[in-house]
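R.M. (postdoc): so does anyone remember the format we settled on? I'll just put the structure tokens first.
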């Protein structure tokens, strides 16, 4: 049997979605007639290419497996793929055998023939995606002993998905939605129902926050597509006028086509307190419809809307000085962040044009719209390896000093939590790639890896379970996709602080995704000020005496603002926290050592420790699965070593444990690559 040959390198993609998920590779190229054993790391991408008449046995779990340009190859998976995905491209005579204990939710084949996939149980079969494939077979092992030859249509350019429903193999044409997710006509109907339910829930959240005046029956006059002039200050409505307006709206005047929210407010008109009546459009999760054709696009279609602007040094200085004055005069400031705050960390945004000046290159949706793999020379990194930017650290400083009261973010990269913002200071409206939640008890778990494993857009289940022995419910990732409900707590906190705020600082967002983009509008309509730092124009916030657009990169703007406010931007250090417990067991003959990673702000479990090792009386003891617990013969060990996932190059850390249960604070400097430890 040939020895495993692993290529532990990081791929160097130049942009697009692939740039977000670079992984180490276990690569096998041009093998001929070999029997190869593979023992990958969990983060490895297994890449088998241009191999002929070979057999591969994968003994341990890996991230994903890709088989390309191979012939007469057999791959046996003895453990599961964390992503749940195996891909075949330009292959003939490939056999896949899947471990009976580990389902493989998604198999994808393109331009391939004579494919055989062996499952041990029909319940383990998920989805098989095919493009231009022939002679594809699904087998189920004893006791099921069933074989299906898929009846695939002959169209070469279309993709089809095969799923099992009611013990039958059903082949459906795949529909690709704007964000690239695969679905079918049937699933779109289900998604539409979920979206309708989501809208109903969002409306109920806002019922107590806003009032709506009845819509005019006269159609508004068409306006030319030009930048609006600064609006005139609206006269305040007196209490008597408000009462007259409320009394003039009778139940008979309610339009049956109005929303649930409008009906609810109409029914409660007598309970409304005297106030200024404002008009408000209802939030729907999705993107703004501003394309010439009226279609909702994930990318920005009009070239003019994608154009990037930069203030001159003189103009920037003047604007920053005015913003600093606004900040000093405000009592409740919130910050609203988008993908633009993370581009300097190497994470691409979504809507920057093909000619953007950003080093990360065009936005993800822009690349998809142009069917481009990326721009040569773009500098990107993974979300796990990205360092919080000066903008992230400036926000931390402003919240520590009390200048900023709350931060609302659309980002899923986890950099705000990594920078030092606690969960009580932050609303991550679209989720966090490193956070998962128990569906039963709602206990949250932070991880030092990406928690999302499912392929289907509305499937959030992961392979892990709740640690609570009285619960053990399955965990779900926290990512929010288009058409899904926003998390209750995050949404409520965001709009609660928006209602209190007298100023909102928007950083790096084009304000196109609803209902998140309604947060700054809420501040403005309540009489507060809105400052936006973004390279593209934001048409819904024309400049006036309460709004300002600063055309500068977020780091440049925040560095200048912090200087005006007299604050330094602190450097980023990685702060970790762990509980180490050591107690004597079995009448004093053994010692149990347990290490638990915790969030820096709460006793929230945080899986940032990869394994724990102890050298004791000539033997090495290791714990690599949570709970990280080791039982050793007495006497007590003098030292234990913590090993980390190493996204920032963290070296192992030695700690001398003491009897009892103690908390340890650990600070890592990614520049010097040194740890500091303190027992609390």
């Amino acid at each position: 049997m040939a020895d495993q040959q692993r290529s532990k390198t990081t791929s160097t993609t130049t942009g697009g979605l692939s740039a977000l998920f670079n992984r180490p590779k276990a690569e096998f190229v041009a093998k001929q007639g070999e029997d190869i054993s593979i023992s990958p790391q969990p983060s490895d991408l297994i890449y088998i290419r241009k191999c002929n008449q070979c057999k591969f046995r994968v003994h341990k779990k890996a991230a994903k497996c890709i088989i390309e340009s191979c012939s007469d190859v057999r791959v046996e998976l003895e453990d599961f793929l964390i992503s749940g995905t195996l891909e075949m491209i330009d292959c003939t005579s490939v056999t896949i055998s899947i471990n009976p204990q580990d389902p493989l939710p998604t198999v994808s084949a393109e331009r391939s023939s004579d494919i055989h996939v062996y499952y041990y149980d029909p319940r383990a079969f998920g989805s098989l995606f095919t493009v231009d494939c022939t002679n594809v077979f699904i087998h189920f092992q004893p006791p099921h002993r069933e074989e299906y030859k898929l009846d695939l249509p002959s169209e070469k350019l279309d993709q089809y998905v095969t799923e099992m429903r009611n013990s039958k193999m059903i082949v459906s044409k795949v529909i690709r939605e704007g964000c690239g997710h695969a679905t079918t006509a049937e699933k779109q109907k289900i998604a539409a129902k979920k979206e309708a339910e989501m809208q109903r829930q969002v409306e109920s959240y806002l019922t107590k926050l806003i009032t709506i005046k009845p819509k005019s029956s006269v159609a508004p006059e068409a306006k030319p597509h030009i930048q609006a002039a600064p609006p005139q200050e609206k006269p305040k409505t007196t209490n008597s006028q408000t009462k007259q307006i409320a009394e003039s709206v009778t139940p008979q005047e309610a339009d049956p086509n109005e929303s649930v929210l409008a009906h609810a407010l109409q029914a409660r008109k007598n309970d409304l307190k005297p106030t200024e009546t404002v008009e408000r459009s209802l939030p729907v999760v999705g993107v703004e419809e501003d394309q010439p054709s009226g279609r909702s696009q994930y990318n920005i279609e009009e070239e003019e809307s994608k154009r990037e602007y930069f203030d001159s040094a003189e103009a920037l200085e003047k604007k920053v000085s005015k913003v600093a004055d606004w900040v000093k005069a405000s009592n409740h400031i919130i910050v609203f962040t988008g993908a633009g705050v993370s581009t300097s960390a190497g994470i691409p945004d979504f809507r920057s044009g093909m000619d953007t000046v950003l080093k990360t290159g065009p936005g993800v949706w822009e690349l998809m719209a142009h069917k481009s793999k990326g721009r040569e020379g773009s500098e990107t990194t993974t979300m796990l390896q990205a360092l919080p930017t000066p903008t992230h650290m400036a926000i931390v400083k402003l919240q520590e000093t009390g200048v900023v009261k709350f931060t609302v973010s659309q980002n899923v990269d986890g950099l705000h939590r990594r920078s030092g913002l606690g969960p009580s200071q932050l609303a991550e409206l679209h989720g966090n790639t490193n956070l998962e939640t128990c569906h039963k008890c709602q206990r949250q778990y932070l991880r030092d890896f990406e928690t999302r494993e499912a392929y289907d857009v509305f499937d959030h289940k992961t392979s892990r379970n709740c640690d609570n022995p009285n619960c053990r419910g399955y965990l779900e990732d926290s990512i929010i996709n288009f058409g899904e409900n926003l998390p209750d707590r995050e949404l409520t906190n965001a709009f609660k602080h928006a209602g209190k705020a007298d100023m909102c600082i928007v950083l790096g967002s084009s304000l196109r995704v609803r209902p998140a983009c309604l947060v700054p509008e809420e501040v403005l309509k309540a009489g507060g000020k809105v400052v936006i730092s973004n390279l593209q124009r934001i048409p819904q916030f024309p400049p006036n005496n309460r709004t300002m657009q600063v055309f500068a990169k977020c780091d440049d703007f925040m560095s200048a603002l912090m200087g005006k406010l007299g604050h330094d931007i602190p450097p980023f250090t990685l702060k970790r926290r762990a509980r180490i417990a050591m107690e004597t067991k079995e009448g004093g003959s053994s010692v149990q050592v347990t290490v638990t990673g915790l969030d820096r702000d709460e006793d929230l479990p945080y899986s940032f420790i990869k394994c724990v090792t102890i050298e004791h009386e000539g033997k090495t003891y290791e714990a690599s699965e949570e709970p990280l617990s080791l039982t050793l013969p007495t006497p007590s060990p003098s030292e234990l070593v913590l090993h980390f996932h190493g996204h920032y190059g963290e070296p192992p850390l030695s700690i001398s444990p003491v009897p009892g249960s103690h908390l340890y604070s650990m600070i890592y400097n990614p520049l010097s690559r040194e740890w500091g430890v303190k027992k609390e």
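R.M.: ...and that's the designed sequence above, right after the tokens. Also worth knowing: The domain at 574-679 is CATH 2.60.40.1970 (Immunoglobulin-like). The two ends are 52 Å apart (CA to CA).
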